[in-house]
Amino acid sequence: MIELRIVPLGPARFGTRNVASPAVASRDDVWIAPPPSTVLGALGDLLGVRAECPQRGGSPTQAAEDALTALADQLGIRGMWGPLVKIGDKVGIPAMDFAAFPDGSAKKFDKKTRIGLALTERKAARPGYLYRATYLHPRRVAYIYYVDGLTAIRPTAVRLGGEGRS
Fold it and tell me: H or E element: which one contains 23?
């Protein structure tokens, strides 16, 4: 089992909802840490194993779960635990936009929201395509995961989220 530490290089968006929707205005929620599925996808991308998530007529959630299970099998990963959030010398758990620590304290992360919309060919707002994307800016933080079945990885920069997308 290895301890995998992820240190963000800047603001991040680990969404709990998709922002790409044709809603007039959609709700946007983010979490302070990358979910295990995102970390698994990043590990696959880093190690040259691509996760294929076919869009079938069935459940997209089941298709994603099947793809992640197959990816974990190809990487030899038997289990993954986490995330924990380490800020300074304190280790806690993520809870939406803050980290909670065993001593009862908490650390809220800086939050910025970007508003966006789709434009028509004439550079006018396209009706029905307004969105907002929230980014959290964790400072001096590390996300910790414990991964069973994976050998040590040398420190490197890797993209989190959207692996395999052009």
Answer: none
The pLDDT of residue 166 is above 50: no
What is the 8-class DSSP label of residue 166? Answer: -
* Residue of higher predicted confidence among 50 and 51: 50
- Please check whether residue 163 is in contact with residue 41, taking contact to mean a CB–CB distance below 8 angstroms: yes
In terms of DSSP bridges, do strands 106-108 and 98-100 run parallel, antiparallel, or are they unpaired? Answer: antiparallel
Taking the CB of residue 156, how many other CB atoms lie within 10 A of it?
6
Report the alpha-carbon distance of residue 132 to residue 117 in Å, rounded. Answer: 8
* Phi, psi values for residue 138, rounded to 5°: -75, 135
Distance CA 39, CA 83 (A): 10
Domain ranges of the chain: 2-148
* DSSP code at position 88: T
Residue 97 CA to residue 33 CA, distance in Å, equals 9
Q: Bin 22: left if φ > 0, else alpha if -120 < ψ < 50, else beta.
A: alpha
List, for residues 114-147, the tens digit of each pLDDT value.
Answer: 888 888 898 888 877 777 778 887 778 999 999 9
DSSP secondary structure string for all residues of 95-143: ETTEEE-TTS-EEEPEEEEEEEEEE-TTSPEEEEEEEEEEEEE-SSEEE
Q: Cα(125)–Cα(141) distance, rounded to whole angstroms?
A: 38
